[in-house]
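User: Please run a holo structure prediction.
Assistant: Happy to. Please share the sequence and the ligand.
User: Here you go; the ligand is nicotinamide-adenine-dinucleotide.
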Amino acid sequence: MDRLRIGVVGVGVQGHLHARVLKTLPEADFVGIAEADEARRSKAEAEFGVPAYASLDQLLDQVDAVSICLPDHLHEEPTIRALAAGKRVLLEKPMSLSTESCDRILANCPDPDALMIGQILRFDPRVIRARELVRSGDIGEIWHAKVWRSTSQAVGVGIWDRTSVAWFLGIHDADLLRFVTGQEAEVVAALGRNVLSPGTEDIVHALLRLDGGAIATMENSWTLPHSRPSRADAGLRIIGSKAAIEVTLSHTDLLMVPREGNAVNMDTYFWPSREGNGASNLRTELDAFVRAALYKEPSPVPGSEGRAAVALVEAVEAAMRS
Ligand SMILES: NC(=O)c1ccc[n+]([C@@H]2O[C@H](COP(=O)([O-])OP(=O)(O)OC[C@H]3O[C@@H](n4cnc5c(N)ncnc54)[C@H](O)[C@@H]3O)[C@@H](O)[C@H]2O)c1
């Protein structure tokens, strides 16, 4: 096998990006799509030139691996089905919406290398460097830390009836904190506030304690006005006994100022360019998945790591309601 036959399951916003990248990866043979929505199937077939099936089983017959890009609450069953068919699975974050559900996935994944969770921040060069600095001891003892991620309110509008801001955005920060510090976090308290959506928290602030003793805060919201030039405000700050590090994960580098309308800071790290070429964290992530599957290497982000991030968000949700 010199190229991995791979398909995308769910070709919505994220699946579309996966498909664009997979088309360009030298070691991937992008062979098809499974998508429930008929109009999206036709559009994707025309755009990517591969068959789009209504059923996952039809796609599974054609592939060695799948990338599952279904809504957060639909991750468990298709993942278990693909694993049972002997396929390597890349599952978008969050792994699932409860640790119980993650445990069912893991119980059906006897080969831990068969499953990778799409925690994209682990493929960001800035995060990788920050982790190296912390792990090498250059920061000293971690005294306190802050992770935050806010997006335009437009991100929440499409999804707040089926997920929450802690699950959709906070899962990135839960993973980021664990990945960079190498420590587990305990949730001490969390407060949420509903201001925009019909009934879920749009703002969540959590107070955590790392197992090395540091205090940490995690803040998530989808309340930024859409007119803000950078529609994501995100980052990580760690203050230690020897040094502090600050990582800006917002979109800041490329500003487009139209003659009419609002100025926009455009993403230059996470997503592929319009043509799907060039570097992007998603490309690095998908390339890592493809190569690990092709060369039978360990999962770059095992299910156990996805589950740990889920456990942290679950604890935030529980603390908010207690
Ligand atoms: N890594 C990141 O930074 C990042 C960013 C955005 C979204 N995501 C994740 O990606 C996943 C998908 O999010 P999205 O925004 O693309 O959602 P979306 O709603 O835009 O797309 C989901 C697609 O799945 C299809 N679908 C639903 N049920 C199906 C089924 N049973 N079989 C086949 N197709 C089905 C829908 O028709 C839709 O086209 C979510 O888990 C989300 O959290 C990750």
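DSSP finds ten helices and 14 strands in the chain.
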